[in-house]
């Protein structure tokens, strides 16, 4: 979202060593409860995009 601003020098990465790029999404949710139907649909939609 901000690659152009970083490339132009308007923005600078701070702590770049601590923020390596990674593909995909990371979702955190409580594992003790059953996921809601809405959350399950979101996960399925994200899986189809990757």
Fold and architecture overview:
The protein contains 2 helices and no strands. The chain has a domain at 23-50. By secondary structure, the protein is mainly α. The protein has helices at 3-8, 37-49. The longest helix has 13 residues, at 37-49.
Report, as a whole number of angstroms, the end-to-end distance: 18 Å
Structural class: mainly alpha
- Shape estimate: elongated
What average pLDDT do the residues reach?
83
Low-confidence stretches: none
What fraction of residues sit in β-strands?
A: under 5%
The number of distinct helices, counting runs of at least 4 residues, comes to 2
What's the number of extended β-strand segments? Answer: 0
Over all CA atoms, what is the radius of gyration? 16 Å
Largest sheet: none
As a percent range, the share of helical residues equals 25-40%
* Element order: H for helix, E for strand: HH
């Amino acid at each position: 979202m901000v690659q152009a601003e970083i490339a132009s020098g308007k923005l600078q990465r701070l702590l770049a060593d601590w923020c390596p790029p990674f593909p995909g999404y990371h979702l955190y949710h409580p594992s003790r409860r059953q996921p809601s139907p809405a959350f399950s649909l979101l996960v399925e939609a994200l899986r189809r995009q990757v």
